[in-house]
Amino acid sequence: MPSVENSTMADSKTKSAKSANKTPPKSPADPTKEKAAKRLSCESNSSHEGAVAGELSALEEAFRKFAIHGDTRATGKEMHGKNWSKLCKDCHVIDGKNVTITDVDIVFSKIKGKSSRTITFEQFKEALQELSKKRFKDKSDEEAVQEIHKLIEGKAPIISGVTKAISSPTVSRLTDTTKFTGSHKERFDPSGKGKGKAGREDLVDASGYVSGYKHAGTYDHKVQGSK
């Protein structure tokens, strides 16, 4: 009998151990909660990106504005040589004495990669450092870099106004009706206004007067006056 009791007690302990090791079944996932978690994750990521964007320096903001100028596909992370030259002109980095357009082109070619046509923001700062030595010769290297950064910070591309039409003597001669001759002259009246169909076709004059007669239309007045 003791052996039976011992075996029963061992079986009960084994069953209790197995039941303790079993993990409770997972409840089915709630799709609403999953969507909310994803949305919160996206919002947190976007807010983090916004915070990073808000931390852009005034120099980098200017770099991005000039980098996307005139190019709808540009991302603002890289700048072409044309926009680099425009930045140096608009921000007065080029002064015509210490720094010329040639200096700007040489520095750009030196900083960019051999197979690349653009420069990054880091390369942009290197290029400014190179030009600062020429632009501000009387200042230390550190002060020269600060001064050239001040020229660019907070700036944006200057958009030129609409080009005015330049009057040309040739165009004026071709559009001045008083100088027309021959059949072209007959298409306009003395004020320069076009006669329309009458100026393009020979219309039959049924007035009874000879063409070009100066006193046309005066007969009726004379007859009525005599009466």
TrEMBL record:
Name of this protein: Tubulin polymerization-promoting protein isoform X1
Cellular component aspect of the GO annotation: cytoplasm; microtubule
Keywords: Cytoplasm
Gene: TPPP
Location of the protein in the cell: Cytoplasm
Segments for region (Disordered): 1-49, 179-200
Native species: Alligator sinensis
Cytoplasm among keywords: yes
Family: Belongs to the TPPP family.
